[in-house]
Amino acid sequence: MNDDTGPRGRTMRAGGRFVRSIWLFPALLTVVLLGLTALQINGSSVGMVHSNFYGAQPDPDLLLNEPQGIRADEWNVNTQLTVAQDAAGYPRVNPNVGQGEDVTLIRDVPYKEWSTVFKPHNLAFLVLPFDFAFAFKWWLMGYLLILSCYFFVLALMPKQRWFAAGLGLALFFSPFNQWWYQYVTLSSMYYALFAATALILLMRSKRLLATVGWGALLAYVLTCFALVLYPPFQVSCALAVAPFAVGFLIEQGRALPRRLLLRQLGIAAASLVVAGALIGAFVATRMTVIETIQNTAYPGKRIVESGGFDFVHLFAGHTSFGLQFEEKAAVYKVMANQSENSNFLLVFPFLLVPSVVLLIMLYRAQRTIDWPLLLVSLTLLGAVAWLFVPHLDLVGKILLLNMVPPARLIIGIGLLSFVGMALVVRRLLDERIGRPSYKIVIGYTLVVLLAQVLLTLHVERAFPDFMQERGLLLSITPIPLVVFLLLRKHFAWSAAALLVFSFVMTMYIHPLYRGTEVLTRTPLAESIRAIEAEDPDATWATDVPSVENFAYMSGAHSLAGVYGYPQLELWRTADEQGEQDFAYNRYAHVWFVFDRDPAKTVPTSYVLGTSDHFDVVTEPCGDFLRQQQARYLLTVEPLNEPCLELRETVRYPAATFQIYKVR
Question: What is the DSSP letter of 586?
Fold first, then answer.
């Protein structure tokens, strides 16, 4: 006979309780996170560098899918500059780029300073070997996004753990988030959701100590959110969560005893004060750099006007399967590229009519208003109005929407859609609201299906060959199915359907890649490190865009590379009158153009290529490079100047690099 009271029985009961608890899903996610970290597997497109060096030769570190060249901000900027921080020892000011750059602004890289506590995704670099830390950071961002949605839903509806899990995973696999997979995108969403969750738990807490704990967490999360330092996404996500927070506080104001309400609001206010003090300390210690960034020619102070956005594109996220394939993506020409064209599967706009019905039913039954649902619905309508209606400048100034380019506001609308779905489910769970009539739900679902068909046909006609027949069927199915299941109160299944379709629309975007040795253990990087060890005070310059960061990524000082903000004093050494400052007063990729005509001498000048790239045209043996102590030039085209000595040649199957030393 089994003894249910013995140690084994108690263990089995504890295991059973755990499996049925809200902690099973986070535990499974944690196992996946740690497993991918242990295997050093990430989703970076850094394999593009292997293609540049080895052409079509197989990449031994590429495990699945293909790297995405369009994600250059990841593989050619953030990833390489993270490697550069490791090479320099994680300083706050990296001395290896130009005259030194404060990396705590603009860049998402690890560094050793108090403020990195509020960028927890980078803390692993300070304790783990690099490739392990890189993999951990990559997946931690997605992990936190999933859990932020999961716990937000559970804070509202504690028994809906499978709906919460499915919705969190669907948010993670949303096309917009996968194409824009980087810290400034995902963290803007997950810190906003974590802040909302902390506020819910703070206001509902009865014990003082627990309330203070939730207040401390709220202060921490708000500080983390502020230090994301990308206003377009931060403003969008704040405007998505703020109406919920206001509505929830109105609800709590009516439900809580006055004394308890004042205590909770006081602790919440104290959280804001603490967060404000921390943010103020961060800003005060970086004012010079902040002023420089604000006064750049690019990105400068962007002022956005309302109206003019493409209506169909906003609601055509369900057609984005084709963006995963370069040839098909090229024919979809609403925005510049796949990332800019990416979107969410927006469900909540198609739940606005049911939301109005639910609000009316609640008011008739109880003479009360579901303030969170009402305010979130109105905010969605307002955001859509901002995109399509011109001359709303006053609204833009008040809500800071004039700082948000239209394509960036999509992140806020996407977040509103997920928050709105959760609020609709919360209202449908009300026992006084029965299951909606099957005929009514079928009828409404057919209306949604018709809308999807019309949107899809418009996309197909506007961009022939973007979608195939199977793609047409796939695109019109998901949102009507999700709406039907949700209104019939099959909440977990509705989230599962949204997850499946989101995954299908994003499954080819990211590769699975092992490590970063293509940057750190490649012959070019090893040659640079060997020369740097012999001549540590030398400066490098290159005219090869594909290896712009390789010198300071390998621990050497470089004039070429990605500059997070302009170093005006450096470039003005060759522009004493400031006549060309428009070209170099910007965030930019900096490449050199070496004069190869020995018969003439060209003065150093700056040529603006694109808004985020300028060339430094100069003599390889001229005064500018000598003043900057540039002793090594990296190129793929031979240089025939008497002052140069060929130090080394590095050969790859697809490229050959020469390293010249300036005598």
Answer: B
